[in-house]
């Protein structure tokens, strides 16, 4: 190849080079110390006649300069594009904020309730959300066609299965498998086929409580519940017990808590009815117990001053992010 041919082919090769490695191969091909095409011409200059040397020498030296410039220009192009593409980090940009998750207010309340009852020696158990009418009603002394079934507006799955309307069926399930003495709480989701408003949801949570043994009395119930509310709402909290009716307790009670000068109903309760003990084959003459059921959302609403129960299930981050 003569100088003009080398110029044409070398500049063409440099233009086509895809990466630094390919560029280096091209550099060695033309400027390599041993066998570079241009190097060979430059080395042979001394053997040429004066006239030839005068003609070829300046052209070969000029080409060396041009090639070196072309190589270094191409190298700069590669390094600029690698900074953009491969490294690609602009350390002067503000960092992305990592979103840290947090617990839903109902989970916070449930955890707190479990913590307090654990400290009072209660264990936590859970049960199924889809129930049979036997556990939800019959075994709790609410036979078919009993008017008390109207107290719980029910989502029926078929004529025997339903979505539990309260956590009380777990009283039966637990007593069928365990012998007293024991004390348990049952947190869980319940469902009611009723109109929603600021304090009623069709799907909400309850925490059931059950303490059974040979010497359990209403005084034990009053102590446990008063202690629970004082730990939950604060030491000075006033608690009121009112007579009420549930078919699975005798006597039946409702419990109110005084907050900002108003009494608020927070749970149903009572001494377990002998017919419930009959259903689980305990001897009602020997065994007694108390039970209660409270609404988790209602407790959360009081504690956090939440005006509308529907906010819990709205999925509105402006609400949940406050907790
Ligand atoms: C009673 C006696 C026992 O020995 C054991 C448990 C009970 C409670 C009974 N199983 C029951 O469900 N009673 S209740 O219908 O009055 O509901 C208990 C609590 O659930 C209420 O005090 C209220 O806090 C909450 N609740 C009821 N309906 C609700 C609701 N919360 C939100 N939305 C609803 N629709």
Radius of gyration: 42 Å
- CATH architecture descriptor name of the largest domain: 2-Layer Sandwich
Order of helices and strands: HHHHHEEHEHEEHEEEHEHH
As for the number of domains, it is 2
Please give the largest β-sheet: 7 strands, mixed
> What's the overall geometry?
rod-shaped
The structure class reads: alpha+beta
Listed once per kind, the bound small molecules are: 5'-O-[N-(L-tyrosyl)sulfamoyl]adenosine
- Could you tell me the CATH topology label of the largest domain: BirA Bifunctional Protein, domain 2
Question: What's the helix count?
Answer: 11
Low-pLDDT runs: none
Question: What average pLDDT do the residues reach?
Answer: 92
The CATH superfamily label of the largest domain reads Bira Bifunctional Protein, Domain 2
Walk me through the structure:
The protein is α+β, with helices and mostly antiparallel strands and 323 residues long. The protein has two domains: 3-83, no CATH class; 105-320, BirA Bifunctional Protein, domain 2. The protein is 42% helix and 20% strand. It is built from eleven helices and nine strands. Strands 1-4-5-9-8-7-6 form a seven-stranded mixed sheet. It has a two-stranded antiparallel sheet with strand order 2-3. Strand 6 and strand 7 form a beta hairpin. Helix 2 packs antiparallel against helix 4 and helix 5 (105-119) packs across helix 10 (296-304). It is rod-shaped and about 130 Å long. The model has no long low-confidence stretch (mean pLDDT 92). Bound molecules: 5'-O-[N-(L-tyrosyl)sulfamoyl]adenosine (YSA). 5'-O-[N-(L-tyrosyl)sulfamoyl]adenosine binds at residues 166, 168, 192, 194, 200-201, 204, 206, 208, 246, 248-249, 265-270, 291-295, 297-298, 309.
């Amino acid at each position: 190849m003569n100088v003009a041919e080398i110029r044409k082919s070398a500049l063409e090769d440099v233009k086509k080079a895809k990466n630094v490695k390919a560029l280096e191969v091209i550099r060695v091909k033309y400027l390599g110390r041993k066998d570079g095409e241009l190097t060979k011409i430059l080395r042979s200059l001394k053997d040429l006649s004066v006239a030839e040397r005068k003609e070829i020498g300046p052209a070969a030296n000029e080409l060396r300069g041009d090639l070196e410039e072309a190589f270094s220009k191409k190298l700069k192009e590669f390094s600029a594009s690698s900074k953009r593409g491969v490294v690609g980090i602009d350390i002067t940009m503000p960092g992305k904020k990592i979103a840290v998750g947090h617990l839903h207010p109902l989970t916070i309340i449930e955890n707190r309730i479990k913590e307090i009852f654990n400290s009072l020696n209660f264990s936590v158990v859970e049960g199924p959300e889809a129930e049979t009418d036997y556990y939800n009603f019959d075994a709790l002394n609410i036979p078919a066609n009993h008017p008390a079934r109207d107290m719980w507006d029910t989502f029926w799955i078929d004529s025997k299965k339903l979505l539990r309307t309260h956590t009380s069926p777990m009283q039966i399930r637990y007593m069928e498998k365990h012998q007293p003495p024991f004390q348990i709480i049952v947190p869980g989701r319940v469902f009611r086929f009723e109109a929603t408003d600021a304090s009623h949801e069709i799907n909400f949570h309850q925490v059931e409580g059950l303490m059974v043994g040979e010497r359990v009395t209403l005084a034990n119930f009053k102590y446990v519940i008063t202690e629970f509310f004082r730990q939950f709402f604060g030491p000075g909290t006033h608690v009121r017990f009112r007579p009420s009716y549930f078919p699975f307790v005798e006597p039946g009670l409702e419990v109110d808590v005084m907050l900002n000068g108003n009494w608020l109903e927070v749970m149903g309760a009572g001494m377990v009815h002998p017919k419930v003990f009959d259903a689980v084959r305990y001897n009602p003459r020997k065994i007694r117990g108390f039970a209660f059921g409270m609404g988790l959302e209602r407790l959360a609403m009081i504690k956090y001053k939440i005006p509308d129960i529907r906010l819990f299930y709205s999925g509105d981050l402006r609400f949940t992010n406050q907790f």
